[in-house]
């Protein structure tokens, strides 16, 4: 018996270790092989972190925690900011395995369901596509799953002390999100539910404390500045006015199934049906409430992904919501898998065969489908070393603007981004005539082109194709209108001759 338990333990350690290894392969392969940052707006955040290091001044917005944390991590760890942002997304989203495993284990006490759920998380394209992009939302994956774990832990153990980390993490989530009101509302609902139904209060005190909690939360919603900012963002940007940041089409209900692999649709449907049945069946109160909270979170993101946009109520066209919805359906999927494993008694060989089918169907041949690389470390270093006189004007493309601003942060230059009217002008003279309208009398004007970007051929993001202008003809900028000042394998610097 002792030998059997030892073998089982060894097998479990090996299985969980294999899952972690797979998650690491899928998340670290791109930063390790490309050595390049993805997504343009990463350079906005890394620039803010660098500015904090140089000046000690925090940015004047409610998501200051993210750049401040990375600046501190870089300073204390003696790691350059580029490496922090290059590997940060992979690290954070790999760590998210821990709370996800905790949620499924607390609900099921089933290693089979936990392992399969973790495997789906490790290789799922809807999550993977943004896993290596180290933006504030990548941290919200970890924070959000941690909150779900703490919610379940609170109801299962009935210990009020769990409310302390719940609200600490909730505050952190608010400072990582332009509109972090969702988990503020979830935590408030969980807190009130715990006080009313799990703390052993009489009916009279339930009503009293429930009323106090509602009044207090309403007051804090009005008083706390980040919450007010979140509300303002929700109502002002929700009409889709910010087309640049939130582009895309409203997702048709017909795409609910086609957007995901058939296997995952089946597992998700199984999980939803199981949760509904168990919620209305004879089960412990803590389990019903926990399932209700998980279903609430999942349905919230489903609403923003499909329902509200189609009803034209909230048109934040949601490519981000694909990731969040996928992420927060996983605990429900795991619960459904556990229910099947417990109800259907199969031999070990058949179980192994079923797991093998799931693995084969779920594995992706392309580790990360988004091959949008914006700049590598050498590109940034070459930009930083450019011989630019103080007070000069540097012109670049929209897609190259943020990394240029970061690389030239310590240069006393002005930056200007121009579009196709300049970088795809009909002739050198036409380009020269156009740029003369932006020159500053008595100041040198330069054009900075990222040759690294010109070599990229991304396939999936229209914003890149529209703004990077990787198909521009650099011979457009030639004598006698322009002069080459500096050229490396990664960048090209030209001076406008006036």
Structure overview:
With 498 residues, this protein is α/β, with parallel strands linked by helices. It has helices spanning 2-34, 42-55, 65-77, 81-95, 97-108, 111-123, 125-128, 136-157, 163-174, 181-197, 203-223, 225-237, 255-258, 262-279, 285-310, 319-343, 348-362, 377-384, 398-407, 420-423, 428-435, 451-454, 462-467, and strands at residues 36-38, 373-376, 393-397, 414-418, 445-450, 482-487, 491-496. It is elongated and about 85 Å long. A five-stranded mixed sheet has the order 4-3-5-7-6, with helices on both faces. A two-stranded antiparallel sheet has the order 1-2. Strand 3 (393-397), helix 19 (398-407) and strand 4 form a beta-alpha-beta unit. It has two domains: 2-362, no CATH class; 375-496. The chain starts with a helix and ends with a strand. Helix 4 (81-95) runs parallel beside helix 8, helix 5 (97-108) runs antiparallel to helix 6 (111-123) and helix 10 runs antiparallel to helix 11 (203-223).
β-sheet strand percentage: 5-15%
Percent helix range: 55-70%
The shape is elongated
- Give me the side-by-side strand order of the main sheet: 4-3-5-7-6
Mean pLDDT: 83
Number of domains: 2
Report the C-alpha radius of gyration, rounded. 26 Å
Write down the secondary-structure element order: HEHHHHHHHHHHHHHHHHEHEHEHHEHHEE
- Number of DSSP strands? 7
Outline of this structure?
The chain is 64% helix and 7% strand. It is α/β, with parallel strands linked by helices.
């Amino acid at each position: 018996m002792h030998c059997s338990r030892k073998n089982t333990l060894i097998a479990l350690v090996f299985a969980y270790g294999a899952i972690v290894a797979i998650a690491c392969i899928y998340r670290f392969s791109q930063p390790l092989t490309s050595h390049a940052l993805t997504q343009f707006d990463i350079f906005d955040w890394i620039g803010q972190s660098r500015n904090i290091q140089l000046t000690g001044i925090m940015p004047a917005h409610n998501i200051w925690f993210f750049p401040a944390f990375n600046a501190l991590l870089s300073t204390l760890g003696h790691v350059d900011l580029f490496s922090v942002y290059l590997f940060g997304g992979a690290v954070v989203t790999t760590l998210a395995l821990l709370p996800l495993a905790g949620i499924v284990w607390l609900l099921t006490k089933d290693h089979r369901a936990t392992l399969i759920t973790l495997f789906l998380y490790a290789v799922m394209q809807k999550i993977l596509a943004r896993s290596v992009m180290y933006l504030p939302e990548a941290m919200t994956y970890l924070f959000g799953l941690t909150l779900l774990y703490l919610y379940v832990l609170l109801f299962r153990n009935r210990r009020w002390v769990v409310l302390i980390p719940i609200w600490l993490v909730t505050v952190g989530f608010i400072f990582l999100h332009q509109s972090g009101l969702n988990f503020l509302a979830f935590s408030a609902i969980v807190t009130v539910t715990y006080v009313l139904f799990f703390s052993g209060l009489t009916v009279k005190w339930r009503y009293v404390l429930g009323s106090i909690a509602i009044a207090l939360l309403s007051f804090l919603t009005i008083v706390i500045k980040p919450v007010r900012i979140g509300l303002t963002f929700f109502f002002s940007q929700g009409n889709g006015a910010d087309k640049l940041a939130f582009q895309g089409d409203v997702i048709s209900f017909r795409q609910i199934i086609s957007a995901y692999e058939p296997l995952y649709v089946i597992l998700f449907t199984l999980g939803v049906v199981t949760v509904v049945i168990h919620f209305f069946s004879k089960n412990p109160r803590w389990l019903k409430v926990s399932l209700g909270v998980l279903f609430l979170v999942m349905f919230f993101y489903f609403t923003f992904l499909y329902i509200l946009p189609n009803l034209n109520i909230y048109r934040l066209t949601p490519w981000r919501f694909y990731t969040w919805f996928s992420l927060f359906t996983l605990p429900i999927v795991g619960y459904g898998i556990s229910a099947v494993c417990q109800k259907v008694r199969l031999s070990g060989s058949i179980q192994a065969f079923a797991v093998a089918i799931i693995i084969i169907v779920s594995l992706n041949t392309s580790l990360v489908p988004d091959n949008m690389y914006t700049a590598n470390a050498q590109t940034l270093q070459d930009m930083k070393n450019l011989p630019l006189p103080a007070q000069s004007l540097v012109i670049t493309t929209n897609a190259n603007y943020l990394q240029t601003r970061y690389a030239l942060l310590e240069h006393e230059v002005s930056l200007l981004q121009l579009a196709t009217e300049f970088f795809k002008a009909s002739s050198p003279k036409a380009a020269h005539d156009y740029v003369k309208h932006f020159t500053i009398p008595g100041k040198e004007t330069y054009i900075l082109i990222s040759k690294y970007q010109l070599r990229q051929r991304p396939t999936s993001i229209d914003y890149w194709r529209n703004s990077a202008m990787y198909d521009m003809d650099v011979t457009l900028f030639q004598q006698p209108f322009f002069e080459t000042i500096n050229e490396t394998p990664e960048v090209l610097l030209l001076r406008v001759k006036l």
